[in-house]
């Protein structure tokens, strides 16, 4: 079949100049693949440079504290990736003498490494003939071959892996994997692809049948829940404040935040004032309470929409071990809180 040859030719002419494509170092490829899970290349690239500069080897990453890793990861989201990254680096450094597993099967045993990531590392670092199947690959193959199987089902993934494996040139699987992912990212994009300039416009079944906009088929809808966060920013006469670590499992685990008052809906001054005086800061003399933002900040995660309000609470007493503005910025925060601090809206 001509498909892989045409695809690889397109790739060699159109590929982006990305740093992790210039190496077979499994540490760098692993870093890039973890960072690019659910993250656009443009957003992930600066983080890749930051991590490889700060942690040139897996030993450097393993020896860092989790807080250092989370701080450097700040803003990239899905922070469980960073925690798994750190734990895996320690395992590779301490248990495997810094040497990454050299097969798909063994790579799968690493924490935070799923089928796609293991396939990427195995093919890019070790040229193992194992196909990568991500959203880009689903899209390209479903359209080209007019496959209506529901991509949210495990059986469909197996079906696509078999097709990709059959297409893949076994002597150079890495370039095929790179090519099909790049083609999905640049040409066969989710919405309104320009099929007039596509190298497959004479053989793509979806184009011939006018089904490009309906493929791939994905039936399972992600349920989004709404949560309502009220952050209480304590300020003492010295301008110092108080933060806490999110130790419970769930979003932002082990990141820092201001004391949080979560409600079931957006609330006003009276509800917050009552909580501040009777629930949160009962040992302090509250001088004033004031909302810091004119509108509620909506922070969208994949499965949750957070409606966030920031409230300044001035107190008469000095906070023991309080943090000033410069010290505050050294802690790893969720990006929505860090941006608030950076804009100095904290002084509202």
From TrEMBL:
<dbReference type="InterPro" id="IPR000445">
    <property type="entry name" value="HhH_motif"/>
</dbReference>
<keyword id="KW-0227">DNA damage</keyword>
<dbReference type="Pfam" id="PF14815">
    <property type="entry name" value="NUDIX_4"/>
</dbReference>
<keyword id="KW-0234">DNA repair</keyword>
<dbReference type="InterPro" id="IPR003265">
    <property type="entry name" value="HhH-GPD_domain"/>
</dbReference>
<dbReference type="InterPro" id="IPR011257">
    <property type="entry name" value="DNA_glycosylase"/>
</dbReference>
<protein>
    <recommendedName>
        <fullName>Adenine DNA glycosylase</fullName>
        <ecNumber>3.2.2.31</ecNumber>
    </recommendedName>
</protein>
<dbReference type="Pfam" id="PF00633">
    <property type="entry name" value="HHH"/>
</dbReference>
<dbReference type="InterPro" id="IPR015797">
    <property type="entry name" value="NUDIX_hydrolase-like_dom_sf"/>
</dbReference>
<dbReference type="InterPro" id="IPR044298">
    <property type="entry name" value="MIG/MutY"/>
</dbReference>
<keyword id="KW-0326">Glycosidase</keyword>
<keyword id="KW-0479">Metal-binding</keyword>
<feature type="domain" description="HhH-GPD">
    <location>
        <begin position="35"/>
        <end position="186"/>
    </location>
</feature>
<keyword id="KW-0411">Iron-sulfur</keyword>
<keyword id="KW-0408">Iron</keyword>
<keyword id="KW-0004">4Fe-4S</keyword>
<dbReference type="InterPro" id="IPR023170">
    <property type="entry name" value="HhH_base_excis_C"/>
</dbReference>
<comment type="function">
    <text>Adenine glycosylase active on G-A mispairs. MutY also corrects error-prone DNA synthesis past GO lesions which are due to the oxidatively damaged form of guanine: 7,8-dihydro-8-oxoguanine (8-oxo-dGTP).</text>
</comment>
<dbReference type="Pfam" id="PF00730">
    <property type="entry name" value="HhH-GPD"/>
</dbReference>
<comment type="similarity">
    <text>Belongs to the Nth/MutY family.</text>
</comment>
<dbReference type="InterPro" id="IPR029119">
    <property type="entry name" value="MutY_C"/>
</dbReference>
<dbReference type="InterPro" id="IPR005760">
    <property type="entry name" value="A/G_AdeGlyc_MutY"/>
</dbReference>
<keyword id="KW-0378">Hydrolase</keyword>
